[in-house]
């Protein structure tokens, strides 16, 4: 596989390090990779696979043949190229640079290249494929009659996911001398009939050496966009997979009045071959920054509640490793220089947000004509804690009942069944008898109620903290829900009357039971339970006049894809205002 081949090449470097190379000019043209890569012969058609540069060359080691060489990129630097003797393509005549695809699910590696087909009388150039399943490369074969025809086919290139094959061909029915074609991989692994990329991409002249970058942009070389007879590097923005906007010619120093071809991309580097002046001779390999610099500029915005903005913003890579951090002052501003075409996570921490971190994921763009400043904004949330019983993944209420399934309430409900207080008359048959499966579930409910009580006490502590200066009230809002199953017309509320003026709740014994009433009773009884856990707390007693309770019944929980058991629930929101 690729790692093994790279190791063999690194060993070979020891033996060729003293090999003389033709000197290049003392002052090379900007972007020229110098004698590490280039010679006085043609070095062109670069391709990058993983961290390895491949290109074709007619240098001394090739014995006057055009062969593919490889240069492992180590610590961001190119190493001296050697012939990869493991690749079967060097046995062919007039080869192109390779195109690779590794299927990560199967571990099978695919190699595509163009070369003279030795089995045809005409000796035309076809596209070949070879696979490596772990035992070395298979014997290359032409890629079927749909791709390899009696005409010229060359410059194969695959999308990063292996689903699209691009190549150049002069087959009949095209738009110009040589056109770009696209073939999509079928479900059975075969390639569909190629489709000409059309007049929006192809020109009446030659269009060759296509590349689909990881961000979907199309790069290729063309004689039809520069107004002269030389090849230029062309770029097109994606519209959707396999479709692009009208291409444009890239600017200097990428393009000159000479030939540029074989675009390849490695990180933020555009690699190409050119026969421009100032090189080592013939075609040389050049590299340029593909994109302008990118800066993330951010702002922390308040929520009008007077919470200080001071905190820390961290910049993390896609492996969640912290790269940089900045301390945020009261102006709330921050800035990070970042790499292009990378995904980052920004995390903002503020001690006044009760250990809650605000996060945003950002993928940095590439703009080859200017620098980019990405504007990011974090807005402080309202100071509140939301407790949702569904997060505990257990039913918080028995079917038809309204007291939370704590251990004590569960025992009390079973006693009502045991003494035939409920379950006999039609008016109470809507209430489920709690079987033994509820015993273990009740421990989770106990834990949930304890969690709410602890959060309320923490909120009380925050009333005296500097972060909440100017705030003087805690609001606890409890919302009850029922599952969508209907109750019979015989169903009745069977316990003592409720007359609570604070919440304007007035329920008479024998009142018709409905899902709306059931949801109110669940919210109200949850309040009574939490209140009973808080009543002996000195902190709670000291701030009774600053705590406001709100009760609401929402009726049926209409969340999609939720089981009936999980719809029997309450939400509890704790806010500091």
Task: Give your account of this protein's structure.
By secondary structure, the chain is α+β, with helices and mostly antiparallel strands. 15% of the residues lie in helices and 34% in strands. The protein has 7 helices and 35 strands. Strands 1, 2, 3, 4 and 5 form a 5-stranded antiparallel sheet that branches. A 4-stranded antiparallel sheet has the order 6-7-8-9. A 4-stranded antiparallel sheet has the order 10-11-12-13, with no helix packed on it. A hairpin with a 2-residue loop joins β20 and β21. The longest helix has 26 residues, at 437-462. The two termini are 62 Å apart.
Search tags:
four-stranded antiparallel beta sheet, disordered N terminus, 15% helix, five-stranded antiparallel beta sheet, 7 helices, 60s Ribosomal Protein L30, Chain: A, 3 domains, 34% strand, Tachylectin-2, Chain A, 577 residues, alpha+beta, Immunoglobulin-like
């Amino acid at each position: 596989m690729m790692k093994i081949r790279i190791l063999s090449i690194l060993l070979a470097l020891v033996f060729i390090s003293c090999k003389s190379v033709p000197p290049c000019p003392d002052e090379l043209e900007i972007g020229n990779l110098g004698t590490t890569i280039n010679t006085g012969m043609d070095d062109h058609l670069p391709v990058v696979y993983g961290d390895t540069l491949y290109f074709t060359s007619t240098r001394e080691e090739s014995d006057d043949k055009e062969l593919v060489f490889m240069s492992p990129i180590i610590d961001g630097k190119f190493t001296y190229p050697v012939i990869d003797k493991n690749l079967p393509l060097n046995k062919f005549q007039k080869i192109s640079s390779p195109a690779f695809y590794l299927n990560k699910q199967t571990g099978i590696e695919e190699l595509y290249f163009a070369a003279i087909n030795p089995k045809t009388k005409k000796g035309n150039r076809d596209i070949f494929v070879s696979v490596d399943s772990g035992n070395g490369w298979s014997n290359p074969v032409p890629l079927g009659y749909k791709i390899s025809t009696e005409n010229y086919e060359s410059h194969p290139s695959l999308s990063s996911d292996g689903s699209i094959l691009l190549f150049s061909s002069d087959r009949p029915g095209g738009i110009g001398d040589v056109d770009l074609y696209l073939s999509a991989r079928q479900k059975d692994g075969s390639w569909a009939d190629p489709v000409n990329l059309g007049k929006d991409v192809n020109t009446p002249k030659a269009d060759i050496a296509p590349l689909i970058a990881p961000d979907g942009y199309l790069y290729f070389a063309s004689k039809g966009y520069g107004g002269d007879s030389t090849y230029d590097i062309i770029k097109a923005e994606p519209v959707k997979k396999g479709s692009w906007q009208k291409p444009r010619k890239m600017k200097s120093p990428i393009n000159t009045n000479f030939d540029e071809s074989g675009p390849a991309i490695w990180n933020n580097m555009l690699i190409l071959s050119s026969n421009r002046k100032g090189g080592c001779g013939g075609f040389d390999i050049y590299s340029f920054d593909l994109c302008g610099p990118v800066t993330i500029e951010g702002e922390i915005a308040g929520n009008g509640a007077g919470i200080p903005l001071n905190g820390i913003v961290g910049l993390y890579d896609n492996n969640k490793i912290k790269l940089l951090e900045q301390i945020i002052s009261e102006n709330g501003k921050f800035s990070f220089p970042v790499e292009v075409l990378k995904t980052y996570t920004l995390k903002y921490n503020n001690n006044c947000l009760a250990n809650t971190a605000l996060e945003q994921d950002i993928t940095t763009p590439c703009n080859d004509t200017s620098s980019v400043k990405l504007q990011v904004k974090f807005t402080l949330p309202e100071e509140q804690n939301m407790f949702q019983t569904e997060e505990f993944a257990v039913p918080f209420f028995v079917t038809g009942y309204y007291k939370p399934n704590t251990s004590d309430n569960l025992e009390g409900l079973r006693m009502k069944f045991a003494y035939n207080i409920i379950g006999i008359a039609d008016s109470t048959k809507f209430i489920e008898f709690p079987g033994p499966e509820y015993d273990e579930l009740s421990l989770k409910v106990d834990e949930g109620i304890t969690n709410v009580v602890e959060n309320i006490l923490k909120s009380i502590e925050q009333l005296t903290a500097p972060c909440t200066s100017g705030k003087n009230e805690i609001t606890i809002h409890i919302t009850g829900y029922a599952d969508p199953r209907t109750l019979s017309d015989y169903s009745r509320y069977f316990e003592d009357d409720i007359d609570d003026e604070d919440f304007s709740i007035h329920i008479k014994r024998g009142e018709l039971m409905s899902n709306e009433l059931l949801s109110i009773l669940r919210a109200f009884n949850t309040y009574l339970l939490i209140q009973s856990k808080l009543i002996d707390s000195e902190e709670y007693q000291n701030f009774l006049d600053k705590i406001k309770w709100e009760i609401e019944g929402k009726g049926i929980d209409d969340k999609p894809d939720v089981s009936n058991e999980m719809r029997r629930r309450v939400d509890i929101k704790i806010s500091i205002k």
